[in-house]
Amino acid sequence: MREAARVLRFQRVSDIHALRFSILNTIRVGARHGAPAPFHTVSVADNPGAMRSFIAVGVLAASCLSKAAAGIPDKIYGVNLGGWLVLEPWMLPAEWAAMGGQSCSNCADCIGSEFALVQAYPQTADKLFAKHWSTWFTQDDVNQLRAAGINTVRIPLGYWIVEQLVNRQTEFYPRGGIKQLQRGLQMLKDAGIQAILDHHAPPGVQTPGQSFTGHCTSDVEFYTDYNYHRALVWTAVMTALSHLDPSFSSVFAIEAVNEPIMDATQTPGYGDFQKNFVEVIRAVELVLGIPVPGLTLDVKVSTANFTSALSATVSTSSLFNAEVKSALAEAVPILVELGFELAVSSIFNFDMASSPLKKTRESLVANFMDINWQYNNPANPADAKIGPQGYDNHLYYNFGGVADPNPDAYLTSICNLPRVQNDAALGNSPLWFGEWGLPTQFDATDDFLNKWADAQKLAYSQGKGWIFWNFKVEMSEQAGDLARQWSYLEGVKLGYLTADPSQVHDPNVCAPYVNATS
After folding, report:
1. Does the chain have fewer CB atoms within 10 Å around its N or its C terminus?
2. Torsion-angle region of residue 116: left (phi > 0), alpha (psi -120 to 50) or beta?
3. Are 229 and 323 in contact (CB under 8 A)?
4. Nearest CA to 299 among 276, 281, 320, 318?
């Protein structure tokens, strides 16, 4: 099927490029603070061959959507694909140094993030990252994850994967990641592994001094109208691709923001952003004809051209606020470009499948860090709920502040963990633990790591499940013993993590610690 689609695509490649040029020349992107420019539908009467060829590809591709419709697993047994499309230098120090990066105690003081490396090497950075992306996550990795029983991956993404959102005068990020994401999702889909698209590094930086934001800086600008808006446009694009690109069809959730600042007094407007985030997802789905529980579109969609339908909805619907409608409008020209770049012809005709999308796709799960991630009277993401929603919590003991640094204190803490119950009391359910690992503040024995893995899996499985950080880390002299406690695949090889992720070595590991005090 994929080979047939490839052949059809290239039979009329010159006509398709002509059509692309015709469509893109009709688009004006509205200024951020002004009214969005109208999107004009394009007649293809002068170039019918191009559209016929492109639609032929789409018929084949769209017919595959029903074969891999995503859905949240009954229990999540997952890993993060960290270090791939958002590179964190500490996870691969030798490769980072070979790329021209540096290591320092404060990552803002050296070439310690993607932003800094692209700024330092603007002529070669894209090639450097293309090599990294193609080698860090491969078919062999997918095969190992499948063999290990993993059913879910969380994919950290930067906003710059939608390149049209980047201000190239002041923001420095590699280009080409969207095709790598498509490649990775296709491999995961073929392996039957479901995916969460995690907005790990939103525009403007959401927390200071961290390479996982893509730009290690103390200047936090995410919590502004401008950057909230860009994040909503990103959300519209990712939602559309998740439903329309067959390679994305294993995506079941989109996470709004990874690890916002914990002090809610420093995240103004975040509660409104959560509501707008959900509305953007649901607006895209309603236009596509995908049922959204509790919500009905107030206008009739009379065209199967998705970008035209989205534009018409923005113009006539009263269901969504001005900010949501503006974000949807600005996603339209981006989706047109991506439709051609990624060969997703269903963007232009989304009802080509043998069964309509409403029969083959479900609403995506809107995913947030849970309310208890923040303090000082944070907004409750449950208040934003329209349709399916899930919640994420991260727990690392090695950074301190959770339990005293000794084995008994660790096990006492994890075996009496109340987070699932506390979140459920505030409407934050289902809850999964989207990041955790085996690192400790003390030298852990092999025997303790067996117990530590078991106890955490048991605790997190009280909720919807768990997603280990990370699927792998670099094995090198520079990385030292990093993989022993940070790599899932290495943890399985060493025996700390069971070959079947649903099992533990000792189901009674917590018995001596339940209700004990640390």
Report:
1. N
2. alpha
3. yes
4. 318
Phi-psi region of 467 (alpha: psi -120 to 50; beta: other; left: phi over 0): beta
Please give the C-alpha separations between residue 112 and each of 125, 201, 218, in angstroms, as whole numbers.
14, 15, 14
Q: Which residue has the tokens 């595959």?
A: 64
Burial class (CB in 10 A: 0-12, 13-18, 19+), 447: exposed
Count of CA atoms in the C-beta half-sphere (13 A) of 463: 30
Instruction: Report which of 507, 482, 435, 518 is spatially closest to residue 196, judged by C-alpha positions.
Output: 435
Where would I find the beta strands (DSSP E) of 428-470?
Answer: 431-435, 465-468
Please state the domain extents for the chain. Answer: 2-394, 395-518
* Domain 2-394 grouped into CATH 3.20.20: yes
User: Residue 427 corresponds to which tokens in the numbers above?
Assistant: 């409407």
Query: What are the two backbone dihedrals, phi and then psi, of residue 435, each rounded to the nearest 5 degrees?
Result: -150, 130
Give 251's contacts (C-beta < 8 A, 6+ positions apart).
70, 185, 194, 195, 196, 197, 242, 364
For CA atoms 174, 470, 108, 105, the dihedral sign is negative
Quick one: which of 123, 24, 56 has its CA closest to 340?
A: 24
User: Dihedral sign, CA of 422, 428, 433, 439?
Assistant: negative
DSSP letters for 338-358 = HHHHTT-GGGT-TT-SSS-HH
Show the 3-state SS of 185-231. Answer: HHHHHHCCCEEEEEEEECCCCCCCCCHHHCCCCCCCCCCCHHHHHHH
| pLDDT at 19 exceeding the cut of 50 | no
Are 285 and 292 in contact by the 8 Å Cβ rule? The answer is yes
CA 106 to chain centroid, in Å, comes to: 26
Model pLDDT for residues 318-340, shown as the tens digit of each residue:
999 999 999 999 999 999 999 99
The conformation of residue 296, written as its DSSP 8-state character, comes to: -
Give this prediction's pTM.
0.89
- Range 270-287 average pLDDT: 97
Give the strand pairing for 152-158 and 194-201.
Answer: parallel
Q: What is the amino acid identity at position 387?
A: G
Other CB atoms within a 10 A radius of the CB of residue 15 amount to 17
Can you tell me which residue has the tokens 């103390």? 218
- Please identify which residue in the block is written with the tokens 């690109």: 245
Instruction: Kindly compute the dihedral angle of the four CA atoms of residues 204, 209, 212, 213, in this order, to the nearest 10 degrees.
Output: 0
| Helices (H), ranges, 101-159 | 114-120, 125-136, 139-147
Question: What does the pLDDT average to over 419-441?
Answer: 98
Angle CA 90–95–101, to nearest 5:
70
